[in-house]
User: Fold this.
Amino acid sequence: MNILVVRTDKLGDFITALPAIFVLKQYNPKNKIIVCVAPLNFALAKECDFIDEVIVDEADSSVFALAQKIKKAKIDASVTLFSNTRVAFAQFVAGISERIAPATKIAQIFYNKRVKQKRSEVKMAEFEYNLALTQVLFPQINLEYKKPLLTFEDAQKIYDVFCINNDIRKDVVAFHVGFGGSSDANWNLDEYEILIRNVLLAKKHQVVLTFGPDEKDLYESMQERLRGEDVVFYLSLDGLVYFAKLISKFTLFVSTSTGTYHLASLVGCPTMTFFGDSKFASAARWKSVGDGKLQKHYMLPIEPNKRKEIFDEVKKELFRF
Assistant:
């Protein structure tokens, strides 16, 4: 059976799809699992041994070009974890006989198995809603999956070379101060500087600051703020898979709830993560797919006094770590 799983949005969203993809492959290893993803997630999808084929949805191509790619893959059934009119119509045009998706938005008219999930109620995490959709295709499917879900044979070598090149002699605590994805809460740079200096004061770990390839200005700003301190600044220009291998060996990854947090948890790195104090942006919805025991979540309130209380708690936690 050829099964298409569709999730064409951002990095963190795609990572929440991976448990569902994994259990579909485990249910019957003879099934061919094909995923449809955004271009930015192509390389990561290719690294997953439970994915057999990757279709890239090029946003600047026509919906009929996407439909042709899907039709060529000879799909028997599809599970669309997050839909829009483009991917829904493409599957309809491709003639997939069994098309499963959440019953949301106008796009649902192009599916023949629509599931009411009401994700806005946050009764489960995003990845758990994704897992639940697989039960429509296989009611007896086992929803358990391995953690970490993605490992690399050469990760230790990548990390060792990174340490040699940057004269790192301690376990790494990494900070990713950038802001993106669905996250709507984070510390400001002044607050991050205090947290970073607190870790430096403890003298137990090497601090590494990581930045995405489009965060050069932020990279330079933090270098200026922490000039003269024993901090390694890493601008990620070596690709997403290299970055995943590198952070899989870090001791802690500190960030807001963005794609890099999900990536760190996916590859088994302990995380300390900051979420908005709302149901939509909460840890209850956006906890990652890794081991829950390795995830430390903080909800950041808007009210200044409460925010300060959380900040002081985080500062103490990082000093003790």
